[in-house]
Specification:
single chain, 382 residues, alpha/beta, Rossmann fold, Dihydrodipicolinate Reductase, domain 2, nine-stranded mixed sheet, six-stranded parallel sheet, 10 helices
Length: 382
């Protein structure tokens, strides 16, 4: 049998989150992926990885435009694990160079940047996969199908809560963290547009009335609080609803001393389901038996994402998180910032060790208390 041709891939950035995509590319080598080009803007800091890439025959560049011009027509896939402000422009450039794209979430910092992405993908006849890794999980697909089949009756409400403490250096780790704009583009960085964006996107997917659809949010309102000295918010709640009448509530914080892994609570008129990150999913109909299945660790979800992207290269029917599935999340975040001002967090701001023993977190205990209380009944904290 004739072997399949290699998958020629490029990566823009190998530091920070780029290390995750670099690892995924190495995993994918068993399926024929060859990293043939890479952008490295800090070769001195990444000397060991640079040496490894060169030894493997990967061509190195110091600028993504230069790389894409030189590699035009020679790439099957471009990995874009960069900051939010660069997602839109880099994705369009990669598509115009003839590559399919896996871009880190969110798809872009604004809905205005999404239309050019979709136009470029259509013109190039290439796809864009967005790195919302949890949506690629077979377990997510199984739950979506059970919801559409009426496992908990008509879906009425989805709530999401997550607490991931972050030390002050988290907000100074790059030029866009905690920012509303960077390099002339919207970023709207926040817990809901970055760390917990996966779960907001997943909730909108579950609320979609067809399998390959995500629900758009309307009637958006929110409460946004700032504890750390940043432009954006580090604790926030957004409430909204879908066209089908599903109520939405998403709350998250980095300015907290206690870790609470994200969970999605889905309430129907004939039961409920709960999705607990890296733990399990439980479907509890009012009549009938309880269904329970395990959820994998994040690393396994990322691997599932890469497998799906490689499948899509050879089968246009393979599931990926398309721009159409990712856009409702960006639209929700954009609308949230338009309607809800960012306010100082209530109560006293204090330095406390994460979970009683970790690094010091600048946190607002009162904001954390109000956030968790509001989750119980889906209200806005006051």
């Amino acid at each position: 049998m004739k072997s399949a041709p290699p998958i020629r891939a490029a990566i823009i950035g190998i530091s920070g989150y780029g290390q995750v995509h670099l690892g995924l590319a190495r995993e994918a080598a068993v399926r024929g992926l060859q990293l043939t080009a890479a952008v490295v803007i800090n070769p001195a800091e990444e000397a060991a990885r640079v040496a490894g890439l060169r030894a493997a025959g990967c061509r190195l560049y110091d600028d993504y435009k230069t790389m894409l011009a030189a590699e035009r027509g020679r790439l099957d896939l471009c990995l874009i694990p960069t900051g939010i402000a660069w997602h839109g422009r880099m994705t369009v450039a990669a598509l115009r160079a003839g590559a399919n794209v896996l871009v880190e979430k969110p798809l872009a910092g604004s809905t205005a940047e999404i239309a050019p992405i979709r136009a470029a993908a259509a013109a190039a006849k290439r796809f864009v996969a967005v790195g919302f890794q949890d949506i690629y999980e077979p377990a997510a697909h199984a739950l979506k199908r059970r919801l559409l089949a009426g496992a908990i009756g008509r879906l009425r409400e989805i709530r999401m809560l997550g607490l991931w403490p972050r030390p002050p250096e988290y907000f100074s780790r790059n030029t866009w963290s905690g920012r509303l704009r960077a390099d002339g583009r919207p970023v709207l960085d926040s817990p809901l547009n970055n760390a917990f964006a996966h779960f907001v996107n997943l909730a909108l997917f579950f609320a979609g009335t067809r399998f390959h659809e995500a629900a758009a949010a309307t009637a958006v309102e929110g409460m946004l609080w700032r504890t750390n000295p940043i432009e954006s918010f580090d604790t926030g709640v957004v409430r909204a609803r879908t066209a089908a009448g599903v109520r939405l509530w998403f709350g998250a914080s980095h300015a907290c001393a206690t870790t609470r892994e994200p969970e999605l609570l889905l309430i129907g008129d004939a039961g409920r389901a709960c999705w607990r990150h890296e733990a399990n999913c439980v479907i509890e109909p009012k009549s009938g038996s309880v269904e329970r299945f395990a959820l994998p660790p994040t690393g396994d979800s990322r691997s599932a994402m890469m497998r799906a992207v490689l499948d899509r290269l050879r089968d246009p029917r393979a599931f990926i998180c398309t721009p159409a599935l990712a856009r409702p999340h960006t639209a929700l975040i954009e609308r949230l910032h338009a309607v809800a001002p960012i306010r100082p967090a209530p109560g006293e701001s204090v330095l406390r060790p994460r979970d009683g023993k970790g690094p010091l977190i600048l946190c607002s205990p009162e904001a954390e208390r109000r956030l968790c209380a509001a989750y119980l009944d889906g209200t806005l904290p006051v």
